């Protein structure tokens, strides 16, 4: 047990000054059997603390109930056993390039733009969530023998709003639910962010990637006293589909880290180890400068982040440069690196031997069909991640007119009388060829990830503005959702048949024979866009647009001998390409 407090200029552990050398590692982005390895890698780099967010939507995806909230407690137990302290950032909003910034879509759909304010309906949901979550945090605080030394109030609120009364309500709620360690806020080092996002009597920290002296000078204008801390030192960055892979020079990043420490500050590397957004939980951003109102930029499945410990848990050049810097600020020799998890024994080809159409998959695993005057949003159908089929009838006889999906979010494959007619996006929502009546139109809309940052946070998915034929709305829309969470438990009921002669959308079933189970990556040549499960574990989204070209398969997912593989292809395949294959990392 111990007492961790915030002094006039330092953090104090039982009255003695301590410097926090922390690194971000999200327990939900790392396979549980690999937590201890990744934590040992952080210690070997020279860190004494680990930071994690908590995604509300992962643990409470639909109104019906909770899902393994205890995972956070197990992770914090692993942190304690690894000899590290812990910083917990429970949100409720977390950003983190995570679907919907961590908020359940049924909450943002219900509360709308009143989220992240003092709206009582929203706060009642938060209180219910915190009541369950704090059972995992409160008993594991340092004054009770656990590793937790700091807990965050919201997250970068000054980048979003100015309702400081909301922050006060959250701080009081955390205290009422048993948090006794110091609270803190984190924001960008700008005046409007610090005035909107900080609270009197609560430690304020700043987030940045460079120019530490200027950032801390801004913080000191707002907080003349208290420990200096960069709560997010952005030592890398994340990637978007169709974009470039982002990297940061290791020497330059190490120099920026040294500058932070020379200021006498504590630091949290964001990310120390990024991991992977398994399960289709990757978020999205809006481009377009400060307003973030431009085209959607969905995040890739890998959250490697160009971090010092890469997606596979290996040390990078940045790891070694950071280790050199951090060693100067540790009094004891740094521990050796733990053994790297074993890679896959040898390459293995995936044999695909069954196929089911998207229609058959929807009939088996989909939710209830809804008939409505206008297309219902994903949130109305309780679809967290996945797709929705909209069906509408074009009356006739009538001449060909343009078909437009107004307010499309995010991507749609359109069929007219059973024939594929085009792929539409938010920027190109109109079919190239006009449609005559009578006609039956099927629109399969996929969410590419909900926005996790900026004023468009919380926006709905689906066809949000209606289906237009010329300028006329088509009413009487049938809609049915297909959520990714339905697959592991229900796929055995799907009626698989022979492979299609031409590469078609649908659910492909197969196997892969593994000799020497271990960390691997899965290549999917000839596939366009979709999701993959191995032994029921959702590896996440693949997409041929890149820059990500393979999916990480944690070794604990695989087993010796035969392994089940399901591939949900949402657009088309090239049957002439080689089969998918597992490769050692």
TrEMBL record:
Q: Where is the active site?
A: 156, 232
Stored InterPro entries = B-gal_1-like, BetaGal1-like_ABD1, BetaGal_gal-bd, Galactose-bd-like_sf, GH, Gly_Hdrlase_35_cat, Glyco_hydro_35_CS, Glycoside_Hdrlase_35
Q: Which UniProt keywords apply?
A: Glycosidase, Hydrolase
Protein origin, superkingdom: Bacteria
Q: Which GO terms describe its biological process?
A: carbohydrate metabolic process
**Glycoside hydrolase 35 catalytic domain span:** 11-327
The Beta-galactosidase galactose-binding domain, residue ranges: 507-563
Q: Which residues form the Beta-galactosidase 1-like first all-beta domain?
A: 375-476
GO molecular function terms attached to this record = beta-galactosidase activity
Pfam families, sorted:
BetaGal_ABD_1 (PF21317), BetaGal_gal-bd (PF21467), Glyco_hydro_35 (PF01301)
Q: Which SUPFAM superfamilies match?
A: (Trans)glycosidases, Galactose-binding domain-like
Alphabetical list of Gene3D superfamilies matching this protein: Galactose-binding domain-like, Glycosidases
Return the similarity comment. Answer: Belongs to the glycosyl hydrolase 35 family.
Record's protein name: Beta-galactosidase
């Amino acid at each position: 047990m111990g007492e961790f407090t915030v002094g006039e200029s330092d953090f104090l552990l039982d009255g003695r000054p301590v410097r926090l050398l922390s690194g971000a590692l999200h327990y939900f982005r790392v396979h549980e059997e690999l937590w201890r390895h990744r934590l040992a890698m952080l210690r070997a780099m020279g860190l004494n603390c680990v930071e994690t967010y908590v995604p509300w939507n992962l643990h409470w995806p639909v109104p019906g109930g909770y899902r393994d909230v205890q995972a956070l407690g197990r992770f914090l137990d692993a942190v304690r056993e690894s000899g590290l302290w812990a910083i917990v950032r429970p949100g409720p909003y977390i950003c983190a390039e995570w679907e919907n910034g961590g908020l359940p879509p049924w909450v943002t759909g219900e509360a709308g733009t009143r989220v992240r304010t003092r709206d009582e309906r929203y706060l009642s949901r938060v209180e219910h969530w915190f009541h369950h979550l704090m059972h995992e945090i409160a008993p594991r605080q340092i004054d009770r023998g656990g590793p937790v030394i700091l807990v965050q109030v919201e997250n970068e609120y000054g980048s979003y709003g100015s309702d400081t009364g909301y922050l006060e309500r959250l701080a009081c709620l955390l205290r009422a639910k048993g948090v006794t360690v110091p609270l803190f806020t984190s924001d960008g080092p700008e005046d409007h962010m610090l005035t909107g996002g900080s609270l009197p009597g609560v430690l304020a920290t700043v987030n940045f990637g460079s120019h530490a002296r200027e950032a801390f000078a801004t913080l000191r204008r707002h907080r003349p006293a208290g420990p200096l801390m960069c709560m997010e030192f952005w030592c890398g960055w994340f990637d978007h589909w169709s974009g470039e892979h982002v990297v940061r020079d290791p020497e330059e990043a190490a120099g920026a880290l040294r500058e932070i420490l020379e200021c006498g500050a504590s630091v949290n590397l964001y990310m120390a180890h990024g991991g992977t957004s398994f399960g289709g939980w990757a978020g999205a951003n809006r481009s377009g400068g400060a307003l973030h109102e431009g085209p959607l930029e969905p995040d890739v499945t890998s959250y490697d982040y160009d971090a010092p410990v890469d997606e596979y848990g290996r040390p990078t050049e940045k790891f070694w440069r950071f280790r050199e810097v951090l060693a100067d600020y540790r009094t004891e020799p740094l521990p050796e690196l733990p053994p790297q998890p074993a890679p896959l024994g040898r390459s293995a080809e995936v044999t695909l031997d069954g196929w089911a159409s998207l229609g058959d998959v929807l009939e088996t695993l989909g939710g209830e069909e809804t008939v409505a005057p206008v297309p219902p949003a994903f949130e109305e159908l309780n679809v967290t991640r996945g797709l929705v089929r909209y069906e509408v009838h074009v009356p006739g006889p009538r001449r060909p007119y343009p078909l437009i999906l107004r307010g499309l979010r995010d991507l749609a494959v359109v069929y007219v009388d059973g024939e594929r007619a085009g792929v539409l996006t938010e920027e190109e929502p109109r079919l190239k060829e006009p449609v005559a009546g009578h006609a039956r139109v099927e629109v399969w809309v996929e969410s590419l990830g909900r926005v996790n940052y900026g004023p468009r946070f919380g926006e709905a998915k689906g066809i949000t503005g209606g289906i237009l034929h010329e300028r006329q709305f088509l009413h009487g829309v049938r809609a049915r959702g297909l959520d990714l969470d339905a697959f592991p438990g229900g796929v055995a009921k799907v009626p698989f048949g022979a492979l299609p002669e031409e590469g078609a959308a649908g659910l492909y079933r197969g196997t892969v024979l593994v000799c020497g189970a271990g960390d691997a990556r899965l290549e999917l040549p000839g596939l366009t866009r979709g999701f993959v499960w191995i032994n029921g574990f959702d590896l996440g989204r693949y997409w041929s647009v890149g820059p990500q070209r393979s999916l990480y398969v944690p070794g604990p997912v695989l087993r010796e001998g035969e392994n089940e593989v399901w591939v949900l292809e949402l657009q088309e395949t090239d049957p002439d390409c080689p089969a998918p294959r597992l490769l050692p990392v």
